[in-house]
Each structure stands twice: as C-alpha cells, then as structure tokens.
C-alpha cells in the first residue's frame, strides 16, 4: 500500500488531505494485520478480495470491449491463484494465469489485448505471491509482516520525507509528485523497519545483512510498482484507479507497491526455496 505522491506540493495547510488518508489507512492496516495473524482461509479471503478489486479496476481503467467478461476471467484467475498458492503449486498457478490472461486478451479486442492480459497477470500475481508466502512453513507470518513493514515504512517516510525535504523530482513525466528525497528516505526507512520486524519476530539470526539487503531491494521495487501504476494511469488519462477507499483512491492505488514487493519476495523465495519460500528471505 503506497502513497501516490511522496513529494507533491502541499495543498493549503500542507497536510489537508491527511485526515481521510489516516482513517482509511487505519481501517485497512487493522484488517490486514488481523487477517495475517489469524491466517488460513480468512487471510486468503482478504487477499482474494484485494485481487478481485485490482482486476476490476484495471479492466475498467483501460477501457475496451467486453469489460464484464474480462472481469470474470480475471476473477477466475485470481481465485485459482489463491487456491494453488495454498498448496504451493507455482507452475500450475503460472499456467492458469496465462490461460485466463489469454482469454481476457481475446475478449478485449485488438487495441487492448496486451493491456487486458497484463491486468489479469497483475491482479493474480498479488494474490498468489502473498498467499504463497503466508502458507510457507515456519516463517510464513513473519515474511508477510516483514513486507508490511518494508512497504508501509517506505510509504510513510517517502510521504513525509518528500514533503518536508522537497527537492528535485524523481521522474516528473510519470509522477509529478515524487522526489528523490522522499524516495531515498522511504527506501532506507523501509529496509530498516523490515530488519527490525525480522529481529523482534524471529531473533538476531534473521536480521542480518542479507535481510537488510532484501528489505532495501523490496522497498525499491515497491517504489517501482508505484511508478508503474502512475504510468498506466497517465497512459489512460485517469487520476485514481477508482474511489473505493476514501482519501486514497482505489485498491490499485494502495497496493501497487505491495504487489511488486510481494511478487519480488515470492520469486526470490521460490528461487532459493530451502527450507521454504518464506525462509528464503531471511537465511543467507
């Protein structure tokens, strides 16, 4: 979950948008943490709904033909991804995502085929990666808590760092608000907060230099996710992916960074994979 502007010129009063943002963030964070702690079907349901929302927003944002049918195809991909993640079947998850992405591409027509397919992959990757990490033996809960700390820490410190420090823009053609100061502050803070969660949740053995490196990479990747979503919205001329979340826009606006970070973490864990996907983030 990321801020859409980490260095925008403040509106009157500097932080006039902070109230609704904070209230919505508290509700979302509470729900995310509760589902993480309980785990099981409730956790899968929480992220299944998030994946549905992302797919729905994406297919609406890009326009094109047969939107409802594309939403259904993407929703089926998200649901199958969640189920396959629960039993750790990454290959079959990739296969079913590719099939439903192809269906969405055919439904969208020639001008939107790649965009429609990309949305199915985008939404399904979120649900699969976070559910795969959570169901991992021994460190499933900690791995997702680690990602929460990294992404939320990056988000919060980028927001305030950019507004309080200011300075040159990071990539004004894509995101007019992001600054170098906010991005650097956010990435460093997110990486350090991730290490702190690993330390207090799993002990010193899990909080070494390797974990810090993973945290910094995940924080940087989360910022890339934010930029990518900004580029897509700019391409299609919209400000927010939807108005589902007061003060924040849509699910895509909040989950862009976490989606990229969780997909990165799941891919890294799968590549290392011993003794589990989640353990691959912490033992080096």
Task: Give structural notes.
- The chain is mostly helical.
- It has two domains: 24-135, no CATH class; 139-284, no CATH class.
- 72% of the residues lie in helices and 3% in strands.
- The longest helix is centred in the C-terminal third of the chain and has 28 residues, at 209-236.
- The relative contact order is 0.16.
If strands are numbered along the chain, what order do they take across the biggest sheet? 1-2
Helix/strand/pairing category: mainly alpha
Q: Helicity, in percent?
A: over 70%
Distance between the termini: 27 Å
Radius of gyration: 18 Å
Largest sheet: 2 strands, antiparallel
Task: Tell me the β content.
Answer: under 5%
- The helix/strand series, from N terminus to C terminus, equals HHHHHHEEHHH
Shape: globular
Q: How many DSSP helices?
A: 9
Ranges with pLDDT <50 over ≥5 residues? 1-5, 7-14
Identify the quaternary structure here.
Answer: single chain
What is the number of strand segments? 2
**Structural domain count:** 2
Task: Please tell me the overall pLDDT.
Answer: 90
Structure summary:
With 284 residues, this protein is mainly α.
Question: What topology emerges from the helices and strands here?
Answer:
Elements: H1 18-38, H2 40-62, H3 67-86, H4 90-108, H5 113-134, H6 140-165, E1 169-171, E2 175-179, H7 180-202, H8 209-236, H9 251-272
Antiparallel strand pairs: 1-2
Helix pairs in contact: 1-2, 2-3, 2-5, 3-4, 3-5, 4-5, 5-6, 5-9, 6-7, 6-8, 6-9, 7-8, 8-9
Features:
single chain, mainly alpha, 2 domains, 72% helix
């Amino acid at each position: 979950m990321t801020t859409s502007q980490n260095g925008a010129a403040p509106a009157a009063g500097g932080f006039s948008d902070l109230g609704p943002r904070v209230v919505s963030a508290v509700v979302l964070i509470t729900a995310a943490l509760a589902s993480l702690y309980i785990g099981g079907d409730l956790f899968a349901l929480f992220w299944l709904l998030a994946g549905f929302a992302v797919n729905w927003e994406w297919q609406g944002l890009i326009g094109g033909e047969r939107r409802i049918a594309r939403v259904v195809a993407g929703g089926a991909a998200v649901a199958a991804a969640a189920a396959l993640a629960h039993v750790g079947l990454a290959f079959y998850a990739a296969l079913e995502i590719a099939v439903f992405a192809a269906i969405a591409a055919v439904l969208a027509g020639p001008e939107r085929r790649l965009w429609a397919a990309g949305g199915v992959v985008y939404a399904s990757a979120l649900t699969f990666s976070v559910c795969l990490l959570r169901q991992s033996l021994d460190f499933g809960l900690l791995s997702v808590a680690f990602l929460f700390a990294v992404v939320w820490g990056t988000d919060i410190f980028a927001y305030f760092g950019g507004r309080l420090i200011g300075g040159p823009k990071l990539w004004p053609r894509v995101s007019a608000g992001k600054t170098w100061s906010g991005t650097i502050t956010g990435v460093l803070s997110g990486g350090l907060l991730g290490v702190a969660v690993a330390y207090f949740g799993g002990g010193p053995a899990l909080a070494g230099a390797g974990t810090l490196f993973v945290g910094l990479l995940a924080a940087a990747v989360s910022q890339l996710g934010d930029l990518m979503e900004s580029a897509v919205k700019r391409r299609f001329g919209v400000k927010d992916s939807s108005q589902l979340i007061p003060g924040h826009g849509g699910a895509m606006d909040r989950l862009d960074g976490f989606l990229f970070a969780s997909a990165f973490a799941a891919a890294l864990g799968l590549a290392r994979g011993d003794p589990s996907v989640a353990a691959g983030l912490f033992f080096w």
